[in-house]
Amino acid sequence: xxxxxxxGNTEDSQMNSRDDALKPACATPQATCxxxxxxxxxxxxxxxxxxMSGAGRSxxxxxxxxxxxxxxxxLPPQMIPQIAQLSEIEGQQFSRIAVACDIRGGExxxxxxxxxxxxxxxxxxxxxxxxxxxxxxxxxxxxxxxRHPLEDGRTNLKRAIxxxxxxxxxxxxxxxxxIDTTLxxxxxxxxxxxxxxxxxxxxxxxxxxxxxxGFKYGVPSDADIIYDVRFLPNPYWDPDLRPLSGKDPxxxxxxxxxxxxxxxxxxxxxxLLTTIPYYISEGKLALNxxxxxxxxxxxSVALTEETTKRLKAAGYQISTMHRDIVRDSEAS
Length: 332
Description:
Elements: E1 46-51, H1 57-66, E2 70-72, H2 80-84, E3 97-100, H3 112-117, E4 125-131, H4 134-144, H5 157-174, E5 177-180, H6 186-197, H7 201-204, E6 207-214, E7 225-228, H8 249-256, H9 259-281, E8 286-293, H10 299-313, E9 317-322, H11 325-331
Parallel strand pairs: 1-3, 1-4, 2-3, 4-5, 6-8, 6-9, 7-8
Helix pairs in contact: 1-6, 4-5, 8-10, 9-10
């Protein structure tokens, strides 16, 4: 993971150099509280993200937020039990929570291990630790030109990284999951987070929008895939079909019954079903497929409806939109 792919918000606040580690009374590793050992090992409603500065902690929190977690950054550890209580609120907004606690918290951060090991803290949780080699962390800070939280006039960057690693060692030993980002790209870290923490199929599925449009009104600027179907015969030139749209059976039959349309649909569907899993593996959460014809009322609409039907049959979540279907009717 390059510097710009690592932690996107490496903190530049300064702290005094500390040689003392976390309090020994809190340093005894204990097992994370879980409700059911048969669950996915990281299927907890609370994820606590920590780790080395520059190792991708902010990126991991952003990934969790993208996957539907309610996220809080730089949270004082003493507030974790209170934040965890939000998961008891009825509804989906706080059903899964992720918090980041790190060395920026100064002396407050020292209490993280105590909080997690406390017998009063019974919320099922997962402790995620982000790590990377000292050499890579050093390069990331140099390239980003940001100051390490432990770096000051008496402590250079190399020593600051060494100090942080010494301080965080008990937390690393306590972690349920350690992700080493030394060789990971941002997309690979996102895929790793998705694989380890997103166990609900409804959350992991790619949200796909299939839309129709008319080229004479402009190409959609937010489309990921654009296909031009103006090579197909145009129902517009049939006076009986002109006032109708591709959602009407007469127009749909006119477009879809053609041999050239059937040949296209076979290869088009195969292309989409081949490529969509790769979009998912790269961590993409939404895909916009736009199909265009001249006015966006006949051919593109019929093929958008047919594409939607085929992708739904393959098990994908699909939304459909016809951008210009009314506009072209008014223009006619």
